[in-house]
Design goal:
One of its GO terms (biological process) is proteolysis. Pfam families: BrxL_ATPase, BrxL_N. GO terms for molecular function: peptidase activity. This is BREX system Lon protease-like protein BrxL. The protein is α/β, with parallel strands linked by helices. The protein is built from 18 helices and 20 strands. It folds into 3 domains: about 75-155, Beta Barrel (OB fold (Dihydrolipoamide Acetyltransferase, E2P)), CATH 2.40.50; about 195-360, Rossmann fold, CATH 3.40.50; about 390-480, no CATH class. The protein is about 35% helix and about 20% strand. The model has no long low-confidence stretch (mean pLDDT about 90).
Length: about 475
C-alpha cells in the first residue's frame, strides 16, 4: 500500500474503494457502468476489502438481468419483479400516458407503461429520457380488446450517496497538488503511477476530460488517436451525461421534438458527448447549425414561441490520424469533424480543444490498482460543483483582462479556468486561498492554451479570424517576479 493509498483511505474511510482489475472480473459478461459496479463492490466488501462473492452473484442474478433473462415470462406468470436497471421514459400525447422501455432486457416502449401514481408521486428522480434506478414491475393482462403490458409501479432513483461537498473541499487541504492530481486520475479509474504518464502536464491534460462534468455550459472538442480512453470516460463515470455514438442527430433529437412535444437530449442531461463523431449522420445541417450556434452561445434554444434553457455542455469526440512522430497528419484539425462543424462561426463557440495525441494509449499498466473514491460518489461531487458560483468569481478576480479582449476568448478562458479550479482546488473560497503561481500553472495556462488552439485553427480555416489571443494575464503575478 502506497502513502497515497493510506491517505485516501484515512481521509475518505467510507467513500473510498479498493480497485484492481482482478476484483472487477466478477462483472465479466455483465454490462454495467462503473458507478453501479463500484456501489456493488462497496456494498458486498468487508473492512478488509474481501468481497462476499456469493451474495454479490445472488444480487446480480436476481436484480440485474441481462438480455437473455426470462423477465417477460415471469411477469406474464404473475410475478412482481424488482430490478436495478436503466429505464427510458417517454410521454405519448395521443394516449396521455408515459411509456417506458428497458433496453437491457428487451422491453420496448410499446410494451411498457409507467403508472399514473409513480409519475404523480415522484417530484424528482424520474424524468423523460434515461433513468437509473430500482424499478418494480407488474403485468397488466389484456382486457376489453386492449393489449397487455408491463407496468412500472414503483421507482427508486439510483442515488445511494448524498456527498458532503464541504467535507470534500476541506479534505483537499490534506493533499499536495501533485498528490491531488494523482488522486483525481485514480478517481477516473486509471493508474497515475503508470509509466505511460510521462509528466504531470500530461496528467493534467488527461484530467481535462472532467471539465464538462463540473462546469456548466462548457463546450469542448477532443481529437485523439484510437485507444486513448475517450469513450470510457464519458460513458461510464456519470449517470448525468449522455453519449451519442452513431445514428442520426437532428435538431429535434438534441433540443425539442415539436411533433411529439418531447424534450430532447440536451435539456435532460448535464453534458452530452458525441463519440466517433464521423459515424454520426446529421440531418438538416443548416437548421442544426443555427440551433447549435444559439445554444452554444447562451445556453438557450427556442421551443415554438418560447425559449428554453439548459446548462448541458457539449463535447465532440473524434479520431485523428498521426504521423510517425505522433503528430496530426492534417494540420487543419477541424477537417476531421463532420461537415456540419466546418462552419467557423459555430466552431468559434467551442471554448477549447483537447489535443488527445499527447495522451497515452490505454494499456494494462494504466488500469488502477489501489484506492480511489467510489465513482458514484465522485460523479455526484462533480455534479454538485456545477451549481457553486464562487469559483468563477474568484477566477475573474484573479485575471487582468484587457478592455479590448474578444468576448468569446474571455468567456472561454474564464470558464475553462473555473473548471480546473473546481477539480484541482475545490477548497478555494477566496483569492487568498490559492497562490498566483499555482493558479497560473494549473488553471490559467491550460485554459488559455486550449482556447488558443481553437483560435489558431479558426485562423487557418477562415481569414476573417486572427490567430492572436487577447493578452490576458494573472493579476499581480508580475509584481512577484
Amino acid at each position: 500500500m502506497t502513502d497515497l493509498d493510506k491517505k485516501i483511505r484515512d481521509v475518505f474511510p467510507e467513500e473510498s474503494i479498493f480497485k484492481t482489475p482482478i476484483r472487477y472480473n466478477i462483472f465479466a459478461g455483465v454490462n454495467l457502468p462503473s458507478f453501479i459496479k463500484d456501489w456493488l463492490i462497496k456494498r458486498y466488501s468487508d473492512e478488509r476489502e474481501n468481497i462476499d462473492k456469493e451474495a454479490l452473484f445472488a444480487f446480480l442474478e436476481r436484480h440485474i438481468p441481462g438480455k437473455d433473462s426470462d423477465i417477460k415470462s415471469r411477469l406474464m406468470k404473475g410475478e412482481t419483479i424488482q430490478i436495478l436497471v436503466r429505464v427510458v421514459v417517454e410521454s405519448d400525447l395521443k394516449t396521455g400516458i408515459f411509456k417506458f422501455s428497458v433496453p437491457d432486457i428487451g422491453i420496448k416502449s410499446n410494451e411498457g407503461r409507467v403508472s399514473e401514481f409513480v409519475m404523480r408521486s415522484l417530484k424528482e428522480g424520474m424524468k423523460e429520457g434515461e433513468n437509473w434506478g430500482i424499478v418494480t414491475l407488474d403485468y397488466v393482462r389484456p382486457e376489453d380488446g386492449e393489449k397487455g403490458y408491463a407496468e412500472l409501479v414503483k421507482f427508486k432513483p439510483f442515488k445511494p450517496y448524498t456527498p458532503d461537498i464541504d467535507y470534500y473541499c476541506e479534505a483537499r487541504k490534506q493533499f499536495t497538488t501533485n498528490e491531488w492530481i494523482d488522486f483525481i486520475v485514480r478517481c477516473m479509474e486509471y493508474n497515475p503511477d503508470s509509466s505511460q504518464f510521462e509528466s504531470y502536464t500530461q496528467k493534467l491534460l488527461f484530467i481535462s476530460r472532467l471539465l464538462v462534468f463540473c462546469e456548466p455550459n462548457l463546450n469542448l472538442i477532443e481529437l485523439a488517436p484510437k485507444g486513448t480512453g475517450k469513450s470510457y470516460i464519458f460513458n461510464n463515470l456519470s449517470k448525468y451525461g449522455w453519449m451519442i455514438s452513431g445514428g442520426k442527430v437532428t435538431r429535434a433529437k438534441l433540443f425539442y421534438d415539436m411533433a411529439s412535444n418531447k424534450p430532447g437530449i440536451i435539456p435532460n442531461y448535464e453534458f452530452v458527448s458525441m463519440d466517433e463523431i464521423k459515424t454520426i449522420v446529421f440531418g438538416n445541417q443548416e437548421e442544426l447549425q443555427g440551433a447549435l450556434k444559439g445554444y452554444l452561445e447562451n445556453g438557450s434554444f427556442t421551443m415554438g414561441q418560447a425559449k428554453q434553457s439548459s446548462t448541458a455542455g457539449l463535447i465532440l469526440l473524434g479520431n485523428i490520424n498521426l504521423d510517425d512522430h505522433r503528430m496530426p497528419v492534417n494540420k487543419r484539425y477541424f477537417q476531421e469533424l463532420p461537415e456540419v462543424f466546418h462552419d467557423t462561426a459555430l466552431l468559434d463557440r467551442f471554448h477549447g480543444m483537447i489535443e488527445g495525441w499527447y495522451l497515452p494509449r490505454i494499456t494494462e499498466d494504466l488500469k488502477l490498482e489501489g484506492y480511489s473514491l467510489n465513482v458514484e460518489y465522485f460523479s455526484e461531487l462533480l455534479s454538485m460543483q456545477r451549481k457553486i458560483s464562487r469559483y468563477a468569481a474568484i477566477v475573474t478576480e484573479m485575471l487582468d483582462i484587457p478592455k479590448n479582449a474578444d468576448t468569446r476568448d474571455t468567456t472561454a478562458v474564464i470558464r475553462l479556468a473555473t473548471g480546473y479550479m473546481k477539480i484541482l482546488f475545490p477548497h478555494v473560497k477566496s483569492v487568498t486561498d490559492i497562490s498566483r503561481e499555482e493558479f497560473e500553472t494549473y488553471c490559467f495556462k491550460p485554459a488559455y492554451e486550449k482556447r488558443k488552439i481553437v483560435r489558431m485553427q479558426l485562423s487557418i480555416a477562415d481569414m476573417e479570424y486572427s490567430a492572436k489571443m487577447p493578452d490576458i494575464k494573472v493579476r499581480g503575478l508580475d509584481d512577484l517576479l
